[in-house]
Amino acid sequence: MALGRSLCVSMFVAASPALAADDFIEGVYLQSEELCTQARKDTLQRLIDAGNIVLSVHGLQGVEYNCEFVQVSKATRSPSWAVTAICQEPGYVFPDVLSVTRISPTQIDLVSVRPIDDESEASGNSGSYYLCEGVALP
User: Fold this and answer.
1) Vertex 74 angle, CA 72 and 80, to 5°
2) Long-range Cβ pairs for the range 120-126 (8 Å, 24+)
3) For residue 124, what pLDDT band results from cuts at 50, 70 and 90?
4) Choosing a second label site near 64 at 20 to 30 A (CA), which of 48, 76, 85, 100?
């Protein structure tokens, strides 16, 4: 019976979001420093409502789109993490795996393994995000 309890605890730990990975990102990130300036002048919610994507420790958030980070693993040889995410848009839920790399203290780059099916999707979940000092999630 002890093995069953141990397995149950291990499964619970594995199923819990691993957002406590060492030095994982903190704060709010947007896709340009100009958007950060705009978020400080206006509100972050207005930027989200206008179609911008926000990156935080929890994942990516947009007006009708989000990716929840469900597992985060730190790399040992680079300032990077492997992230498993569950993403949603109206009528569609899908998994994604991303690398999250700290380029500088204020820049994070995301690279998704998910192929882009349509050029209108731009870069999908991949791209650069910039730390927005003084901006909090709504």
Assistant:
1) 100
2) 125/60, 125/67, 125/85, 125/87, 125/96, 125/98, 126/98
3) confident
4) 100
